[in-house]
Amino acid sequence: MKDVFIAGGTGYLGQRLIPKLIERGCGVRALVREPSLEKLPAGCAVIIGDALDNKTYRNKIRPAETFVHLVGVSHPNPSKTELFRKVDLGSVQQAVEAAAHVNIRHFVYVSVAQPAPIMKEYVQVRSECEQIIRGSGIPATILRPWYILGPGHWWPYLILPLYKIWENIPATAETARRLGLVRLPQMVSALTTAVMEPAKEVRIWDVSKIRGF
Which of 34, 30, 26 has its CA nearest to residue 14? Predict the structure, then answer.
């Protein structure tokens, strides 16, 4: 049985990942703010706290040995630059500090595909988050999707034919593959696998890897 601590369990990925981990026999401890309690899936241990202040939760991480970080600004766009730095970067700084404090053995983080010609502020913050994780010395799995197709996230289906064209043009093929679309079940499966098969050092799973799950 694996024990897992999840920050961001009430979000788009967290609500789907938690039941999968419980099905696999994992003990899941989920960090949540009190107003969002009803959004947590059943079966996990509830840890009331603030992702931007690890003193509110770090002594409740154990017995988990894997820390899954899914906290981030929803529906990112260029107007949210200040929030990226406050929430995305701030929560990773707090999480890595807490993970090191309790000797977490594996850190799982959802970053973003990079480099990218758009959303530069968002990509920059996620890149800084990756650097913090690397600097901690904690073995980690860093997943780099670009856009996740699923409920409420359907509009990119309209440009799928364009992706097919871009992938077959030498000048755009590499970028089209790096910034390709992944499906929600693929992303959840990749996260589940990351938890069940911990990294021994820092490993990067890009779009092509995630699509394989």
Answer: 30
Task: From residue 62, give the alpha-carbon distance in Å to each of 28, 181, 191, 209.
Answer: 11, 35, 20, 30
pTM of structure: 0.92
The answer for residues whose C-beta is within 8 angstroms of residue 19's C-beta and 6 or more apart is 41, 43
Whether the CB-CB separation of 179 and 211 falls below 8 Å is answered with: no
Token code pair at residue 176? 């089209």
- Angle, in degrees to the nearest 10, between helices 184-196 and 14-23: 50
- Compute the C-alpha angle 58/143/128, nearest 5°: 65
Tens-place pLDDT, residues 168-187: 777 766 776 777 889 999 99
Triad 147, 171, 178: Cα angle to 5°:
25
Predicted pLDDT of residue 168: 74
